[in-house]
From TrEMBL:
Annotated stretches, region: Disordered: 1-21
Example of a GO biological process term: response to stress
Protein name: Deoxyribodipyrimidine photo-lyase
Domain of life: Eukaryota
Gene Ontology molecular function, alphabetical: deoxyribodipyrimidine photo-lyase activity; DNA binding; FAD binding
Keyword GTP-binding included in the entry's annotation: no
Organism of derivation: Piptocephalis cylindrospora
């Protein structure tokens, strides 16, 4: 089952306060990275469990600045979430469901304390939420569950983020597959055997407006700030994000449908081009749960004659990318050390990262001033928009940990602090894939040549010209690797390392790690 009732009969101490009759019906859904009403497991289950005749469903969102700082959430992402809240509240109001907002201040109480207060204030007896799988989130949710149960509240946690819940795609030996291709094949088998995994969960039923009189003030219970001091964002970045990434599930659905109709067919051909927008650009919406991964696969599959495999190559390729998302979440659950800053392959704890030049070259990388146009264009694009094409992510990640020998964890953190879709499982999984320290990674000796990547995936230099102003007028034949004299004339930085020497240095460092193992 997708849902797990984690509270059955909570232990009661003698004389403990029992929930009163009228408290037994009211149900709360705690929203986190799941800003939507459609196809939302916790909401559907909570709605199904409340009596139709009464108004008993409430929703809660906790604004948690301190937790978000601990998790390196990017200001542009926090802005995305804050922009989503008024829409969520409006969508709920249409169903007469109050969305309560609380801003957490750890000095005054943790998540658990605040949720218990809300339960007491609104006489709530059951709380539902969709599971999050990162180590900190699991610990947080366990403490919320414990406190609520101690106070006689039922807790229901649901699997919703992945299409197949973690732990259900297994090898013959009963372990989570560490190899993506075999994971994907088993994933197809599991999904084919359980069509309900792709089924849309039911839209929540509206509360009875008449019974809500007493809760009326709850429609506006909790202020939604426009911004948070802890997450400063330049006005220009804010405006750009509003234009490029409007929030809400309607927008997410629109993008999904447009992608399926217009671009999915050519996904295989166009997905790697930096100049074409050949991918769905749905990652911010998937990360924040404005669209469910289930809907993505369900709709792509339908468009592909109801097939996961075979049929339209673009559809098959695209669905396989969405499976990568499940894969890295399953890995995170099976190997929680990756969420604790550990390389998947233990030998990489001994990798001799550069200690001397790390800071200087890391800074040049973050600023997009490495003298490698494709790297610089990509980093400037990330810094300005909060989003980056997958090819760019691979190129800059490879350049950081192989050409500059900077520990991949610094890059991983920088990405989290700047990405609109920064997602621990996918970010960590992909950084480790590039660094070769992860499960089923590319081999270490596969070191991208930035100029060649640029020639292949941005042949006319359109992407470079868009982001590296100095090179706007650089001739096409020079743009991928400008000569020293051209760089000087255009006031573009000279390369901070020589790629072929850097490659040799990286391979030596890898051998050093190997011989020490
Ligand atoms: P599409 O190509 O349209 O794919 C559809 C969806 O499938 C994506 O939105 C995403 O949810 C999923 N997906 C696609 N590729 C991958 C992948 N390799 N791994 C996991 N899921 C995938 N993706 C994130 O969502 N968050 C991250 O923090 C993140 N960090 C990354 C860091 C590095 C170094 C690299 C190389 C990749 C990272 N990715 C991350 C994966 C990938 O780059 C993005 O998911 C993709 O570029 C998003 O664009 P899209 O929505 O147009 O993808």
């Amino acid at each position: 089952s997708e849902s797990t009732q984690t509270s059955t009969d909570p232990p009661r101490s003698k004389g403990a306060k029992r929930v009163k009759e009228d408290e037994a019906n009211r149900t709360l859904v705690w929203f986190r990275r799941d800003f939507r009403l459609h196809d939302h497991m916790a909401l559907a289950r909570a709605s199904a469990s409340t009596p139709a005749s009464q108004s008993h469903l409430l929703a809660l969102y906790l604004i948690s600045p301190e937790e978000w700082i601990d998790h390196d959430e990017a200001p542009i992402k926090v802005d995305f979430w804050l922009r989503a809240l008024p829409i969520l509240r409006k969508d709920f109001a249409a169903l007469h469901i109050p969305l309560i907002i609380r801003t957490l201040d750890r000095a005054k109480g943790q998540h658990a304390d605040v949720i218990l207060d809300v339960c007491k204030q609104y006489r709530i007896s059951a709380v539902h939420w969709n599971r999050e799988y990162e180590v900190d989130e699991l610990a947080r949710d366990a403490s919320v569950q414990q406190l609520l149960q101690t106070h006689d509240r039922q807790v229901y946690q649901h699997h919703d983020q992945c299409i197949v819940p973690p732990g259900q795609v297994l090898t013959k030996a009963g372990t989570t597959s560490k190899v993506y291709s075999s994971f994907r094949n088993s994933w197809y088998t599991v999904v084919a055997r359980n069509p309900s995994l792709l089924k849309e969960s039911r839209f929540p039923r509206a509360n009875e407006p008449s019974a809500l009189r007493e809760l009326h003030e709850a429609f506006e219970d909790g202020h939604i700030p426009e911004s948070l001091d802890q997450f400063p964002l330049a006005e220009s970045a804010r405006e750009r994000a509003r234009r490029d990434f409007p929030v809400g599930e309607e927008e997410a659905k629109k993008r999904l449908h447009a992608f399926i109709q217009k671009k999915m067919g050519m996904y295989g051909e166009n997905r790697s081009s930096l100049a074409l927008q050949g991918t769905s650009i749905l990652s911010p919406y998937l990360h924040s749960g404005m669209v469910s991964a289930r809907s993505c696969i369900r709709e792509a599959k339908e468009a592909n004659g109801n097939r996961l495999e075979g049929g339209m190559a673009g559809a098959v390729n695209w669905m396989a990318e969405v499976v990568w998302r499940d894969f890295f979440r399953h890995i995170l659950v099976a190997h929680p050390k990756v969420s604790r800053n550990q390389p998947f392959k233990a030998e990489f704890t001994r990798f001799p990262w550069a200690s001397d030049s790390g800071d200087r070259s890391f800074q040049a990388w973050t600023q997009g001033r490495t003298g490698y146009p494709i790297v610089d264009a990509s980093m400037r694009c990330l810094n300005t928009t909060g989003w980056l094409h997958n090819r760019s992510r691979m190129v800059v990640a490879s350049f950081l940990c192989k050409d500059l020998l900077v520990d991949w964890r610094k890059g991983e953190r920088y990405f989290m602090q700047h990405l609109l879709d920064g997602d621990l499982a996918s970010n960590n999984g992909n950084w480790q894939w590039v660094a070769a320290s992860g499960t089923d990674s590319q081999p270490f000796f596969r070191i991208f040549n930035p100029a060649r990547q640029s020639q292949r995936f941005d042949p006319d230099g359109a992407f470079i010209r868009e982001w590296v102003k100095e090179l706007r007028d650089c001739p096409k034949e020079d743009i991928h690797a400008p000569s020293a004299s051209i760089a000087q004339r255009l006031k573009y930085p000279e390369p901070i390392v020589d790629h072929s020497k850097a490659r040799d240095r990286a391979l030596k460092a890898f051998q050093q790690m190997r011989s020490a193992s």
